Amino acid sequence: MSVALAAQAPATFEIKSAHLPLVALLLKSADLGRLSTELQQRFGDMPDFFDNDPLVIDLSPLQAAEPGAAIDFPALLALLRPYRLHPLGVRGGDAAQMAAAALAGLVVADDAVVQRAQAATPPAAAVAATPVEAPVVVAPPTPAPGALVVDRPLRSGQQVYARGRDLVVMAMVNPGAEVIADGHIHVYAPLRGKAIAGARGNGEARIFALAMDPELISIAGIYRTSDTPLPAAVQGKPAQVRLLSGPEGDKLVIDPIAP
């Protein structure tokens, strides 16, 4: 026989579970000078890239690269805040690192799940590029539907960022121009500037162009510059770029698109 008991609820508040989308910084080095330089290179010309996003600092990559490294957390937090990032928690560190993080006001967030790029099987005609290490900033949400469409050519110095969605460019992206999207990038013309897809860590994003001749291509923080020429099979031709994850790490793969 069940028994109903009288109870009271607070009149001024309630406590509920909540889920907060976080950006994750996968820290690979305790060298904050180098981190500052690479953050400036990556985001210095994009002051609105982050929008006061809450951040979790993931120390897991650091354990393999620099085991037991001491981290100046107050300096690290001061370094991140000008980019409109708000560090809230830390995960993946050893006991000393987690204690230092707690002293800096960060909470333990070992249950935070960081989105990783999904592995895919490359086609026989795929051309693999040499991976280049870069700071990776990963966000859980996938880009929302509804692409940003640009009808005009982009000149040197111009930049277009499709926040939270795909980007479609109907005209040429000239050298010195930059196109950025949290999702896919489609260029229905020559791509001769910089193209950064999956800018917030979406490893499923791709770059498509009718004439692939970029200064730089990047997906989820893995990039390749024109210092390494593209193979003849894709240089100046219709092609797509995707991110391939495997045992040896992430790398960019360029596939020709058949006419």
TrEMBL record:
Keywords: Cell cycle, Cell division, Septation. Residues 149-243 form the Septum formation inhibitor MinC C-terminal domain. SUPFAM superfamilies: Cell-division inhibitor MinC, C-terminal domain. Residues 13-87 form the Septum formation inhibitor MinC N-terminal domain. It comes from the Bacteria. InterPro entries: CAP/MinC_C, MinC, MinC_C_sf, MinC_N, Septum_form_inhib_MinC_C. Interacts with MinD and FtsZ. HAMAP family: MinC. NCBIfam families: minC. Belongs to the MinC family. Cell division inhibitor that blocks the formation of polar Z ring septums. Rapidly oscillates between the poles of the cell to destabilize FtsZ filaments that have formed before they mature into polar Z rings. Prevents FtsZ polymerization. This is Probable septum site-determining protein MinC. It comes from Hydrogenophaga electricum. The gene is minC.
